[in-house]
Design a protein that fits this description.
- The structure holds 2 protein chains of 2 kinds.
- Chain A has helices at about 1-25, 35-40.
- Chain A is an all-alpha fold.
- Chain A is elongated, with a radius of gyration of 18 Å.
- Chain A starts with a helix and ends in an 11-residue tail after the last helix.
- By secondary structure, chain B is α+β, with helices and mostly antiparallel strands.
- Chain B is built from 30 helices and 27 strands.
- Classes of the chains: A mainly alpha, B alpha+beta.
- The interface between A and B is medium-sized, with 26 and 27 residues.
């Protein structure tokens, strides 16, 4: 039982972290141009950071 | 030549040329400003639509190229939307240079006007769905984790704790992620209708309430996982549906936005400036430069030009207009700059009239009810009735045991909840739309598939649909290598369709230096080469400078001559679209009636109909006649597919059961049609129908699978034998089976593109000009 009291909040916290990360990526516009992202990596001179 | 020479001298013909460059540049700048968003200080953001951007190299060229301009602060290319967002500083330079720079880089760029708030709004909806999907996914995964341990035999205390935690996750998650369904269900109910969202919302809310109640009382069984996974699966379907609609709409918007959204106003005492379409009023004097379309109806007051009235009549042959002529909105000005006095504003122009005709036609067609909604109309009441009967049955059987009766009734609602049904249609449509897109066909509406699979009559427009709507050189007489080179040089200086055709035809010829190039509207192009005048254009006008003038008026096509030398001739014809004959044969083989409607004259229409094997054709039709023809057909029970391109076809496109247009069609034509094909081949009609039939088949199979699942699960639910574990497994497997079945559409093959040329005719025969082999018949006629 005592394990669960630690493990379940931990599991939930990790899940929530993932959810927060997704929301952050959505807000920072990483889903705006999915096709572009996949081809940009082929451009050797293009070493900019995603904005 | 009387009209032009008397009213206008050569300086006036080229007002946008070098002398007035500053005015033209300022007008461009005003256009750019109108399309820009002001950020801060002198910084503006302008979005450009760049349709030709395809790969990493394009993005690199554009971004690095624009960054090298002094006024550009930042550039971001979006490959998905084919747009480039440019932030520029007005203090450092002009914004209009960006577009011309892009053009120099080899990319056609058009301003993206932010006016349509609709597109932004749609995007918001997609984001909202994606967030809901993420929340539902998070909740479903965690609750499932806890549920699995309960099912695998946790002791009572642990189970109770787990249920409590599940409840704490599920209630806020459903409250957030369920909103798209709840609002839609409420909307349906307030309109006294039932849609699929009503049983969904009811099942989710009841399952949740019951589970919360159970958790706090005896805590035996809870359906938290069922409620949340249900939402998760349904949100996937909803999001796919949304994605497809938005993608298709985006593609169409992109095409539509290529048109001009305003005009150049000429006022006494002021220099010309750009005004928005909505600001144009009757009586204003507007300048229309070559290559632009008239924003509103107007009377020509100065200048003279050839205009393309294809939007109005559907015929691509250009017409010469002079002072006093009435021109409709949407007419394309080809050769000379003209001034018009507006006789209408944007709301009552010819374009507006046609679109109101279209609206009326669309209302007449009525709102088509998609197969998913039709299912919902039967399914939703049936489910509710079944749950109610279960409740009553259990009340009677158990002698009034409220608790178990409600419990079983809710279990019935949960198990029948249309999870697989919710996925059945959108998954197939998304894959179908993807298959269409790979073949160069865009779909504007999901129900287009269903309507396309129901057709029994296909009606084609002639010019621009069965033919390319653009002239092509078929033969040339008395044109030697030197003349060809000169003709090419002359032709490349005009935007007239005939000149473009000649320039294309003479691609091989080398260019020769020419000077003093003048375009004389209504006649042709004139220039000097080594001191001699050379002319390309109307036969009579060209013959004036030629050696022998006996080749008079009867000469068809476009003539060319060097001063003092005999006249050469290029014969032009409108070319038949690729694969027309095989398409018509394929349609006939499928027992469809094929018809042709045209605004053109009897002779060419009959000629083409005979050559293509179309028995039914009607020439010289006005837009009104086309629409009434379609309506008559539909009233007699036929389901008509209309394929057309012009503005004159637009009302007919809207009135038909389903419609298709080539991408070269007018904006209004494209807006009125359900499918748009971007490749030149007409075979898209057959391909689209084949995919539509296949999607219809898969949707029906999916419904069959979903119902088969219900046939097994519902009796168990009514008998009270359902456990949360069973519900979770049944729901997931039925959804996975439906998705897997839909995926089969990815293996769709259509023999045409693989085998190249399926029919015996060679490509040459297919693309042969309309009247190439019948000059005698034409002459006789």
């Amino acid at each position: 039982m005592s394990h669960l009291l630690v493990l379940i909040p931990l599991a939930l916290a990790l899940g929530a972290l993932g959810l927060a990360a997704f929301f952050w990526s959505l807000r920072s516009g990483q889903y705006e141009d999915l096709e572009g992202a996949s081809v940009r990596i082929l451009d050797e001179d293009n070493d900019e950071q995603p904005s | 030549m009387s009209c032009c020479e008397s009213s206008i001298d050569k300086a006036d013909i080229t007002p946008v040329g070098e002398p007035n460059l500053s005015v033209a540049a300022r007008l461009d700048e005003e256009r750019v400003r109108a399309a820009s968003r002001h950020l801060q200080a002198a910084q503006h953001q302008t979005d450009y639509i760049v349709p030709d951007m395809h790969c990493a190299a394009c993005i690199g060229t554009i971004e690095r190229g624009l960054m090298s301009m002094s006024q550009v602060c930042s550039v971001r290319a979006n490959l998905t939307k084919r747009t480039v967002a440019v932030v520029w500083d007005a203090d450092q330079g002009s914004g209009s240079e960006v577009a011309s720079f892009l053009k120099r880089l080899g990319f056609e760029a058009n301003l993206h006007f932010p006016g349509d708030a609709a597109t932004e709004h749609v995007d918001d909806k997609g984001r909202r769905l994606l967030k809901s999907l993420a929340v539902a996914g998070f909740a479903a995964a965690n609750i499932m984790l806890l549920s699995v341990s309960v099912w695998s035999g946790a002791d009572v205390e642990t189970a109770k704790l787990f249920h409590l935690i599940s409840g704490l996750i599920a209630v806020p998650a459903v409250a957030y992620a369920g909103q798209p369904f709840f609002t839609s269900a409420l909307k349906a109910l307030s309109g006294r209708r039932l849609n699929m969202d009503v049983p969904i919302s009811l099942a989710v809310i009841l399952a949740l309430t019951m589970s919360v109640f159970e958790s706090f009382t005896n805590g035996s069984e809870a359906y938290f996982d069922a409620a949340v996974t249900l939402l998760f699966f349904l949100l996937i379907g909803r999001y796919l549906d949304h994605l497809m609609r938005q993608r298709a709409r985006g593609a169409v918007d992109r095409l539509v936005q290529l048109t001009s959204k305003g005009g150049v106003l000429i006022e006494a005492g002021k220099s010309p400036h750009y005004i928005d379409l909505n600001e144009i009023r009757e009586g204003m004097r507007l300048r229309v430069n070559p290559g632009e379309r008239l924003p509103v109806d107007g009377t020509l007051v100065e200048g003279c030009s050839d205009v393309d009235r294809a939007l109005v009549t559907g015929e691509s042959n250009s017409v010469t207009c002079k002072v006093g002529d009435q021109l409709e909105a949407g007419v394309l000005n080809l050769t000379g700059s003209i001034d018009i006095i507006a006789t209408s504003d944007a709301s009552n122009s010819f374009l507006a009239e046609v679109s109101s005709m279209m609206d009326a036609a669309e209302r007449g067609r009525g709102h088509y009810v998609g197969i998913a909604d039709r299912m919902a109309q039967i399914y939703a009441p049936a489910v509710h009735l079944l749950a109610l009967l279960t409740f009553i049955g259990w009340m009677v059987a158990t002698g009034g045991d409220w608790h178990s009766s409600i419990y079983t009734a809710i279990a019935v609602l949960i198990i029948t909840c249309p999870c697989a049904l919710g996925l059945a249609v959108p998954v197939v449509h998304v894959i179908g739309a993807h298959q269409l897109m790979r073949r160069g066909i865009m779909m504007r509406d999901g129900t287009g598939f269903e309507r396309l699979s129901e057709i029994d009559t296909v009606t084609f427009d002639k010019t621009g649909t069965l033919t390319m709507g653009e002239p092509v050189v078929t033969e040339s007489h008395r044109v030697d290598a030197n003349a060809a080179s000169l003709a090419k040089s002359l032709a490349s200086h005009s935007s007239h369709p005939a000149a473009r055709a000649i320039a294309n035809h003479l691609e091989e010829a080398k260019s020769l230096p020419i000077s003093d190039i003048t375009e004389v509207p209504g006649f042709g192009v004139e220039a000097r080469h080594r001191g001699q005048i050379v002319r390309l254009g109307r036969a009579r006008w060209v013959a004036e400078i030629a050696a022998n003038e006996q080749t008079g008026e009867k000469m068809p096509g476009v003539a060319f001559a060097i001063q003092g030398k005999p006249v050469g001739v290029f014969e032009l014809e409108d070319q038949v679209r690729e694969a027309v004959r095989s398409t018509i044969e394929a349609l006939k083989a499928d027992d469809l009636t094929v018809e042709m409607l045209s605004g053109d004259h009897q002779v060419p229409v009959a000629d083409l109909a005979e050559r293509l094997g179309i028995e039914t054709y009607v020439p010289e039709m006005t837009p009104h006649e086309k629409i009434s023809h379609i309506q008559k057909l539909q009233q007699s029970g036929a389901q008509v597919l209309m394929v057309g391109d012009g503005l004159n076809d637009a009302p007919a496109l809207a009135a038909a059961h389903v419609s298709m247009a080539p991408a070269s069609a007018s904006d209004v034509g494209r807006l009125a049609s359900d499918f748009i094909f971007t490749r030149p081949s007409l075979h898209a009609v057959v391909t689209a129908r084949a995919i539509a039939l296949k999607t219809g088949q898969l949707v029906r199979q999916n419904f069959g699978l979903a119902i088969a699942y219900n046939c097994i699960a519902v009796p168990l639910a009514i008998a009270g034998q359902i456990t949360p574990l069973f519900a979770a497994i049944a729901m997931s497997t039925s959804s996975i089976v439906v998705i897997a079945n839909s995926m089969r559409l990815n293996f769709f093959k259509d023999g045409f593109h693989r085998s190249g040329k399926p029919d015996g005719h060679t490509a040459e025969a297919e693309t042969a000009p309309v009247a190439a082999q019948t000059p005698d018949e034409r002459a006789a006629a």
